Amino acid sequence: MKKGSVIIVGTGPGLGSSLARKFAKEGHHVFVARRERNAAALDELCDEIKNNGGNATAIATDARDEDQVINLFSKVSEHGQIDCVIFNIGANVFFPIKDTTARVFKKVWEMATFAGFLVGRESAKHMKNKGTIIFTGATASLRGSSGFSAFSSAKFGLRALAQSLARELGPQGIHVVHTIIDGAIDHPWIKENFPDTYKLKAVDGILNPDQIAETYYNLHLQEKSVWTHEIDLRPYMEKF
User: Which of 92, 91, 233, 87 is nearest to 165 (CA)?
Assistant: First the structure.
């Protein structure tokens, strides 16, 4: 059977790219989305996937902009059925509460919650009685740490959105998943800003994005009788 399209919103150099490679390898046409300023990186990823025999298309999209999200789904739907949509925007920032401006708080909410709503809504409109929607969460989805008031509240909101959509769309045949990524992911930003943490990669102490992608793909394959709504992923040495 011909496999449908996959949309990955928030296709950065870490997990987003690993997800694109995995779903393309499995025969899906992958549509990768980030803001316009990252267009060159998206094109490079698509070229890599094509060179390896897959299908990938970049569509520059600011997921906080309603018209751009609508346009993204409209373009992808021209290629046929949408099988899976992954919302993978991070929005992780550290700001002590006294330094958190209204602009910062609102921007983080727009990135992690409002954008998730727009993507979830358009997914529901375009998926017909089948499909998977996966929202990437974080440790902050479960508890608010010191200095992360904006990030935690936004991730709490995304988790609530995912729960609501799961209850509404599940009976319609659409599988909604919320993943809790509890720990640092192997990513250039972690390597640059947290070198001591990044050293743990040598002993599998940080999350491997390719392995996370394997888990996401297996979630997409689940039968209706055993759907997972929420799953947490963490390195074996991570405290919880």
Answer: 87
Q: How far is CA 227 from CA 112, 116, 119, 171, 224, in A?
A: 24, 21, 21, 12, 5
pLDDT in tens, 2-61: 799 999 999 988 999 999 999 999 999 999 999 988 889 999 999 999 999 999 999 999
Handedness of CA 110, 64, 186, 27 (dihedral sign): positive
195: tokens are 């070198």
Residue located via tokens 């909604």: 176
Q: For 194, phi and psi rounded to 5 degrees?
A: -135, 65
Q: pTM for the full model?
A: 0.94
Phi and psi at 127, nearest 5°, equal -85, 130
Question: Domains in the chain, ordered, with CATH?
Answer: 5-233 (3.40.50.720)
CA distance 60 to 43: 10
Strand partners, 57: 31
